[in-house]
Prior knowledge:
The chain is mainly beta. The chain is built from three helices and 38 strands. Strands 1, 2, 3, 4, 5 and 24 form a six-stranded antiparallel β-sheet that branches. It has a five-stranded antiparallel β-sheet with strand order 25-28-33-30-31, with helices on one face. The protein has a four-stranded antiparallel β-sheet with strand order 6-7-8-9, with no helix packed on it. A hairpin with a 5-residue loop joins strand 17 (about 230-240) and strand 18 (about 245-250). The termini are far apart. The structure holds beta-L-arabinofuranose. Beta-L-arabinofuranose binds near residues 48, 60, 97, 222 and 238.
Amino acid sequence: MKKLQLAFVLLLLSGNGWAQNPIVSHCYTADPAPMACTANDSLYVYCDEDMNVPGVNDFYYMERWRVYSTIDMVNWTDHGEAMPRTAFSWGREGTCWASQCVEKNGTYYWYICLSKPNDWRHYIGVAKSDKPSGPFKDALKQPLVNTGEGGDIDPTVFIDDDGKAYLYWGNNKLRYAKLRSNMLMLDKSSGKNGIVEVPLTAEAFGGVKVDDKVTGKDCYEEGPWLDKRGDNYYLMYAAGGVPEHISYSMSKSPEGPWEYKGQVMTQQNTGSFTNHSGMVHYKGKDYFFYHTGWAPGGGGFNRSMAVEEMHFNEDGTIRPITSTHQGVKALCTMNPYEQQQAETLNAAYGIHVVGNEKTGVYVTDIHAGDSMRVANIDFGTKGAQSITLRIAAASNAGTLVIRQDHARGKALGRFRIESTGGLDVWEERTFDLTNIPTGTHSLHFSFAGSSTETLFNWDWWRFNTSTTHIDETLVQTDEEASVFYTLQGTPVTTPTKGIYLRKGKTVIIH
Ligand code: FUB
């Protein structure tokens, strides 16, 4: 198993341009819900995090929801542990299941589902924030939806062109409600207390399921996604029992009646027996999100999000989509001369992304053997001469190796990361590159070190078109002048003439 995982990691990080899926590989992410954010022209994906806690039953055990965003579709910024279960005082441990976030008038409403202590049922709640990545606060301090019957999972919310909002949800049963204009209350004017049960007929969903037996071609299971293109409304859903596939129905109204149209994504061999979809229009393209078991060590309870481009036929029907490791193409290149967050990643292995109010979000748990990849970086024709990192290190044990394109590509530099005084003591350090990258490349960051402890924490990086400041006086005045390293990282106690590294700066001894 370990060998298989390692082989997969090498493939994932080898950088031949094929492995964009899964879109996050350093933690397990399920039930993707995309949202195009007009405020900053970014695409956000909201999800829950599959977790393995020793001694805890791994039946969709999830303690938090996470948020990722992108501007290029191949590098995803991890916004950390965006919303913990404890944001909801009424929530039961380990039950943070599928969700969706929508924006209305500059406020972001994140609809989630969660159980209560000593209660097997899920309920739908809602948190809100004035930023797409939070912090989010429970808006009601109690569930928004509580049918009392169970199955109140997988909320999807759609705001129509006329401003009216619709909430669909449900496992085995499909229900919907209209939301009042504050997005926090059900409009009680229709259904039973505002809740309408959608008849799961063969015309609407392809078939019916009774006592786990499906009669007909298909059936609704869970994970609805409500959306609209032109004057067609779409309801996509996980279908067919387990293992699931994704099917869809169409209507001319957000309230139905629905007409079954077929499977969007047939059962795939991705190692996950559930699937859960969402669609989004972003920068002129339509994207289909789903989940797989493709991250290293992945499976049915360790899922990971993936994305494919989606296309519609002239009559509005959806062309069938197949899961691929290639995923989607980059929409633009990354500018290395602007500050880039270390947690903006194409792939990564071993690290974690966390955050706090003081530092914001950063990469932590960097150990010897871990690696990270960032894709599609345009260094231009002149190229980069040095890199500045904002890091915090408790020891002198770590080395960062930067390679071009893939794990065995040309080394751009090998930099010793000396202690900054602690894992929460942040400093900017600049290192000269030993090879100058030009043109467009991926970067492969790998970590080496003599310690099994966290080598350092990493906040951001930026390449520079000039070398570091050369500080000759430092050599003569500083008591610690004897701590030098060669550009390859070998310590030198009595340096002779030449170029050395000292505390992350280049020093020339004449
Ligand atoms: O992630 C937990 C549950 O698995 C979701 O709520 C369902 O849609 C299925 O994906």
